[in-house]
UniProtKB/TrEMBL annotation:
Pfam families linked to this entry: HTH_18 (PF12833), Response_reg (PF00072)
Residues in HTH araC/xylS-type domain copies: 397-496
Keywords in alphabetical order: DNA-binding, Phosphoprotein, Transcription, Transcription regulation
InterPro entries, per database record: CheY-like_superfamily, Homeodomain-like_sf, HTH_AraC, HTH_AraC-typ_CS, Sig_transdc_resp-reg_receiver, Tscrpt_reg_AraC-type_HTH
Protein name per UniProt: DNA-binding response regulator
Domain (Response regulatory) ranges: 3-120
Length: 499
């Protein structure tokens, strides 16, 4: 829309011209008529002007002087000079003063409208180019976690002195677009709209004065109506006039927007100034309740793990934790599972359509986040448990065969567990369940059984040689262990057996 001001000391001319222009096109908006250049300059700071159409001769500030001052202070405003004088000197002076064109009175309608349509097209092209350039700079400023460089900030010029940041997250892009259209029509707001990531939008709203509480309330009411019952979360920052505050304003607005996951209403609209989020030391809390999780993971008690996760999410909900904090806690749960279940990492990476950070960031409800994470975690644990149960019968036989063939070697629990793709703790529990013996007792039994065989059937071998043969390099330990288990020393057993 081309915003136009008309300056002429003859009321019939300026009012008639205003009516004629307004009738021509809805894209032409005459926002004011003035009897003198001084009157326009006095109001200029409150106007958003694209074009000034001015007469040359006026009582206080004439047209040529007005154009010169506009060029000096507002070079983006186009100027059109009109006069009943046809002398070349006026036309030449108008060109030197950067008037866009020179129109003779009486004004030729076709000539005027041809000029205005051309200016509207040029203005739109220039504005689009400026907005693209500004949007690129804004995205850079918002994404950089480190403080933006002075050079970057100095190259960023905002359309108005003040700005407020709005962060929007919607279940549908159409909802956000509908709100944007309504705000432009009903509030005539000027703002840049940026899509930070899929489903997350940022508006930089510009204003000549700081937005008041009533302004913000009106914006919230318009959004609620424009959403048409669709889910929309909106957070707003405070109002600033320093470009260096842009990133902080964005983070504040995002935090206010994120609190929408706790709002049961379809439209959540909150200002950061009304958000009170308590400080939480999540890691300390997590560590104090971590042991039950480890225990349930080790024995693959899926029900116990789910109860623990639900209790943890109850704490997060009570504290109104934001998505970033929820993600951090979910990562800690996953890392704990990876340490206790060697299959977890591979199965977690192969889970279809799951990027935990993206899923949590796009969720519109805390309950949805808990259900998503719980279902994902349950699926992995159930797969691991099912696989282990399928393998359990053959896994113990595999270990027993290896011990029988390698009884004289050191049997490291981790090595044995890796052979059958089980965790050491689970292998120990499973082995005891299947055989009635611990792995250590079973190995001891196999070794002493072989030792007794050699004591009976290899009279030429000395006792310490037999101990070394079955895996006990320390004769004293072999003697002590043999007597404790068998009831007599190896020498006594040898003499009894030979007799």
């Amino acid at each position: 829309m081309l915003r136009i001001a008309i300056v002429d000391d003859e009321i019939l001319i300026r009012e008639g011209l205003a009516r004629m222009i307004s009738k021509e096109s809805a894209e032409f908006l005459v926002i004011g008529t003035y009897s003198d250049g001084k009157h326009l300059l006095d109001k200029l700071s409150t106007l958003q002007l694209d074009v000034v159409i001015t007469d040359i001769r006026m009582p206080q500030i004439n047209g040529l002087e007005l154009i010169k001052q506009l060029k000096a202070t507002h070079p983006q405003i186009y100027s059109i000079l009109m006069s009943g004088f046809v002398e070349f000197n006026y036309a030449r002076e108008a060109i030197r003063s950067s008037a866009v064109d020179y129109l003779l009175k009486p004004i030729n309608k076709e000539q005027l409208f041809e000029l205005l349509y051309r200016l509207d097209k040029e203005r739109q092209l220039a504005r689009d180019k400026e907005e693209r350039h500004r949007s690129g700079l804004l995205l850079t400023v918002l994404h950089i976690e480190e403080p933006s460089s002075p050079l970057l900030l100095s190259s960023l010029t905002l359309p108005q002195p003040y700005f407020s940041v709005f962060v929007l997250k919607g279940s549908a892009r159409e909802t956000v677009c509908s709100c944007a259209d309504s705000l432009r029509q009903e509030k005539a707001l000027s703002f840049d709209s940026l899509e930070i990531q899929k489903g997350l939008y940022v508006w930089i709203v510009y204003s000549a004065e700081p937005l008041s509480d009533n302004d913000l309330k009106d914006i919230g009411d318009i959004m609620r109506i424009s959403a048409h019952g669709k889910i929309l979360h909106v957070g707003t920052s405070g109002c600033y006039n320093e470009v260096s505050k842009l990133r902080q304003a964005y983070l504040d607005a995002k935090q206010a927007c994120n609190m929408g996951i706790y709002n049961p209403e379809p439209v959540h609209y909150a200002n950061i100034q009304n958000i009170q989020q308590p400080e939480m030391n999540l890691l300390d809390h997590f560590n104090t309740i971590r042991e039950p999780l480890i225990h349930n993971l080790q024995i693959l008690n899926v029900t116990g793990v789910l109860e623990w996760i639900h209790d943890l999410f109850s704490v997060l909900k009570a504290q109104q934790a934001g998505p970033d904090q929820i993600l951090r806690v979910c990562r800690w749960v996953e890392e704990t599972a990876q340490k206790e279940l060697q299959e977890f990492e591979a199965r977690n990476k192969s889970a279809p359509d799951l990027r935990l950070d993206d899923r949590i960031a796009s969720s519109m409800s805390f309950c949805d986040i808990e259900e998503m994470f719980t279902a994902h975690f349950t699926n992995i644990l159930t797969e691991i448990r099912t696989h282990r149960l399928e393998m359990s019968g053959t896994a113990i036989e595999t270990i027993k065969r290896w011990i029988s063939a390698n009884y004289n070697q050191h049997a490291d629990l981790n090595t044995l567990a890796n052979m059958v793709f089980l965790t050491p703790s689970y292998l120990s529990k499973l082995f005891k369940q299947e055989t009635g013996l611990t792995l250590t007792d079973y190995i001891t039994e196999i070794r002493l059984r072989k030792a007794k065989h050699l004591l009976k059937n290899a009279p030429d071998l000395k006792v310490h040689e037999i101990g070394a043969e079955v895996g006990y390099g320390d004769p004293a330990y072999f003697n002590k262990l043999f007597k404790r288990v068998v009831g007599v020393t190896p020498n006594e057993y040898k003499r009894i057996s030979i007799v």
